[in-house]
Structures are given as structure tokens and as C-alpha cells.
Amino acid sequence: MAITTLSSRELNQDVTRAKKAAKNGPVFITDRGRPAHVLLSIEDYQRLTKQRRNIADSLAMPSTGDIEFEPQPMTIGIRPADFS
């Protein structure tokens, strides 16, 4: 596993390079010389967090059966358009 370090500027100038490097290992992204972020491939992330779900599952809302929601009725008034 290769570890790559890129500055924020280098990342902004060549995102493709960072994505390719992430296939071989983590990419540390620095701000002012200090590590600030890590870019991982989705496989590495899932292995690290032991998650095997897709993005749709991650974004799906939990069951709403126990949530009470009674919206108040709205009245929308109609006004003539003012073209002046």
C-alpha cells in the first residue's frame, strides 16, 4: 500500500492524479503543511468501516411509522400581477 501526500493546491490542480493515487492507498491532503484530509477509494473506506452498503441505502430514510406529522392547511391568496 502506497501513501501519497498532496497539498490542497496540488489536489485542486490535478484531481485525477489524487484519484489514481487513492487506488493504491490513502492520499493525505495537507493545508499549510499539516495533514487535513484523507482521500480513500470506496473499497478501502468500506473495509475500514466494515460497511457493505451502497449510497442509496446510506441515504434512505428510516421507517417513518412512529413520526406524527399533521401539517397545517395553507391558504394562498391570488393577487393581480403588477407590470409597472
TrEMBL record:
Which InterPro entries did the record assign?
Antitoxin_Phd/YefM (IPR006442), YefM-like_sf (IPR036165)
Gene3D superfamilies, alphabetically?
YefM-like domain
- Signal peptide (residue range): none
Q: Which stretches of sequence are listed as region Disordered?
A: 56-84
Q: What does this protein do?
A: Antitoxin component of a type II toxin-antitoxin (TA) system.
What NCBIfam families does the record point to? phd_fam
Family statement drawn from the similarity comment of this UniProt entry: Belongs to the phD/YefM antitoxin family.
Q: What is this protein called?
A: Antitoxin
